Amino acid sequence: MIVPNGKQTEGGYVLVTVCALLVVLVSFVALAIDTGIVYADRTQSQRAADAAALAGAFTFVADGKSSQPATAEDHARATAVKNTVMGVPIDSAQVDVCVGDVSGGACNPDPSLKRVKVTITRQEPTFFAKILGSSWVTTRVEATAEASNAPTSAMCLKPFFIPNTAFAPVSGPANSCTACGSGNVLVDVVSNSKTPFAQGLIDASTSFTLKPQDPHDALVPSQFYLLDLPSNSGQTGKNGYKDNIETCLNTSTVCRDSYNVITGNTVGPTRSGIQGLIGDPPRDTYVDVGQYHYPDGTTHDTSKALVVAPIWNPCATNLPDGTPLCPGGQFPSGSGSNVPPISIIGFALLFIDSVDNQEGVHAHLIDVMACGPDISDPDGSSAYSVPIRLIRPPE
Length: 395
Fold this sequence. Notes:
The chain is an alpha+beta fold and about 400 residues long. It has two domains: about 10-145; about 155-390, no CATH class. It contains six helices and 22 strands. Strands 8, 11, 14, 19, 20 and 21 form a six-stranded mixed β-sheet that branches. Strands 4-3-5-6-22 form a five-stranded antiparallel β-sheet, with helices on one face. The chain has a three-stranded antiparallel β-sheet with strand order 16-17-18, with no helix packed on it. The longest helix has about 50 residues, at about 10-60. About 40% of the residues are buried.
């Protein structure tokens, strides 16, 4: 370019170069914005898928009565559509749920695996990429969660033990030993599984007295089905008993470990602990297995009144002198070295209905879980005993 003084300048070239680079810079900015939107979309969709898969797997733990896989599918889908992505609610048509084997890429329904896979597929509109003819970007995320078939331990365990023969149609502590041979028990200790007898009790929405307050209903004199667990404060015995009812014990109680019993009725601490747990009057109301009515009129599948208690097998318990408790034996009264420790063979999921000074702690039986045959991860359990986890595919 020639200027009036006869000298040449490269100003026009610089202007053209700046304009060209400006187009490139704007394109990169546009790409960064659209890429950020897609990344945010995927992140929010992944969180929704994770939550939905866990919700579906949770039904295998908290709802042993409703039919599967329909219950897991319904809960997973309902959880997914409660989420939003970039401010837009997830549509049910964008959610695919498989309950079963998904290892081959296709869905092979199998509720016995207790595995739930959720896939969310969405189309996110672009902003600047429309200039290049791309108005939408498809995002697809997956999440798989599973519940273990058997627990190895339990968190938040409550200090009440339930005899494996507690619901047998016989009377008297000695006569209950005959239930072991008849199958009228909660846990089959040979196959490490819940018995058909127990499932029948769950289907019938069975209610019972978890801890009696009347001395006439004790296991034997001075024995009221109380387990001595260390509290979060480190106290044991009656000093930690009330706290273990009202709060969540944050250490694992391991399958087949043995724990001492607490003797005495402890009417006051029992009532106080239960009322601190469920409220006075109780906040939530039992409707059915997996259905608990809240004070605001809504119904949910979880509740503070939903707790776990250990199951004890009297048929395989020896007295301190080595003689078997069953058949025909009787759990010792009193305290001290003549009382055998309680060994845990499984867990019962319960809904605590109420407590009173006359009859005791009232509960509904929600589910029964037998201890697994191998304890490879004693600390891998959850508040409802059976572990639930997300399965991440290899990257």
